[in-house]
Amino acid sequence: MQNYINELNKLKENSSFRTIKNIKEKFSKYIIVDDKKMLNLSSNDYLNLSTDKDLVLEFVDKYKNKNEFILSSASARLLTGNSSEYKRLENNFSSLSSKDASLLFNTGYQCNQGVISALISKGDCIFCDKLNHASIISGLKLSQGDHFRYRHLDYDNLEKQLSEKRKNYKNALIVSESVFSMDGDIADIKKLVELKKKYNCLLMLDEAHAFGVFGDNLFGVAQENNLLDEIDIITITLGKSLASMGAICVSNRVIIDYLINKASTFIFSTALPSINIMWSNFLLEEKFKLLKEKKEKLNSLFKEVHKIYPTISSSQIIPVIIGDSLKTKNTALFMQDRGYYVLPINPPTVPLNTSRLRLSLTSDITKDEMKDFFEKLKNYAL
Ligand code: PLP
Questions:
Q1: Which of 141, 169, 309, 374 has its CA 20 to 30 A from that of 358?
Q2: For residues 302-321, average pLDDT
Q3: What's residue 96's pLDDT?
């Protein structure tokens, strides 16, 4: 036990010890933590849908008498956990992206982990951006293949690795987030497509933070750049903009059939409750116009905020990099005292000496609220 205690003490000394917050309530853009109401600048509910009580009640009223309005699937999809709602959800995502086929996983974490570890076997390899999400890293560690990590958004570095290593392997996968979760910067999808073609690789994009924020059909950065056809595999969590639960992988029929047969996180896990799937379908089928309006509002907001606070970000995620972990923690507490719920993000979640406040904007926040936020922050930390 002592080794664990020592390790925890080290985290405490580095101001990196994590605790679960006492959240009392969330509504729209606000959050109540320890009885204090604050503007929530740490939410992934980018379109502010998850706490919209009117929307939830409309959904419940309409669907409560349906057979699928139940809270457990009690089984994996391949056994008895399936129902028509799941197929409908997968069809919805296939049509939004104009891709052949989709597969629902229980979480984005399981989706990335399952897809990568299934597609990459012994004799294959993965090229991975160094700042990709933990679920992607977990997938490549689980896979039996070799992996190479290129410097964040450095496509010369990626090409160097591709030209040296690709020829030694059978299948190769390039994997990147589109909007990066800690910096809000965006991958150069055109360049990635060029490289995947030149070196005969599959290209996988995680659009977790881009779905609902970019693209005509809300489908993300690849769609915004008219490059959806060129991407082999896209993964999207439904727990952020779609205010639901689960994750979708869209691809071609062969890859999806392969995943159904080989992805252990899909095969061996109880399916999500169908009530959740119905909620996702309700939002996509009946509230799409509202989602699009909220997406436009969020885009206007983050473009205005980039003018107030110049940043490396090109999206709704804005890092305020402070560097030192203790100073970052104190800055977060200072801003919480003034009514803004911001959280410190420390290593190992981000690289050493880049501790930061990670702001994530949501559609109901206003430009004036963010102006006030930066005025207050300037006096303390900038
Ligand atoms: N991918 C990225 C880029 C993420 O930021 C996250 C979650 O934070 C995930 C995947 C995992 O998604 P989920 O929360 O549905 O497991």
A1: 141
A2: 96
A3: 95
Gap from CA of 237 to ligand 1 centroid (Å):
6
pLDDT at 381 over 80: no
What is the token pair recorded at 172? 């190769």
- Output the CA torsion sign for 369, 370, 372, 373: positive
Atom nearest to 239 CA in ligand 1: 15
* Whether the CB of 129 sits within 6 Å of ligand 1: no
Ordered domains of the chain (ranges, CATH): 14-46+316-378 (3.90.1150.10), 61-288 (3.40.640.10)
pLDDT at 382: 66
Q: Which of 42, 116, 135 to mutate to test the pocket of ligand 1 (most atoms within 8 A of CB)?
A: 135
Atom number, ligand 1, closest to the C-alpha of residue 245? 15
Say what the pLDDT of residue 347 is: 86
Q: Output the residue whose Cα is nearest ligand 1's atom 10.
A: 108
| Helix/strand number for the chain, H first, E second | 14, 14
E-state strands within the chain: 23-27, 30-33, 36-40, 101-105, 125-129, 146-150, 172-177, 202-206, 233-237, 247-251, 317-323, 340-341, 344-345, 355-360
Residue 349 binned pLDDT confidence (cut-offs 50, 70, 90)? confident
Q: What does the pLDDT look like over 172-185, one tens digit per residue? A: 999 999 999 999 99
Percentage helix, strand, coil for the chain under 3-state DSSP, each rounded to 5: 45, 20, 35
Q: At 348, is the pLDDT very low, low, confident or very high (cuts 50, 70, 90)?
A: confident
Neighbours of 340 (CB within 10 A): 22
Report whether pLDDT(15) > 80.
no
All residues at 6 or more sequence positions from 189 whose CB lies less than 8 Å from its CB, including other chains:
178, 205, 221, 222, 225, 227, 231
- Check if 239 has its Cβ closer than 6 Å to any atom of ligand 1: yes
Prior bond to 273 cis, omega within 30? no
Closest C-alpha among 276, 294, 277 to residue 218: 294
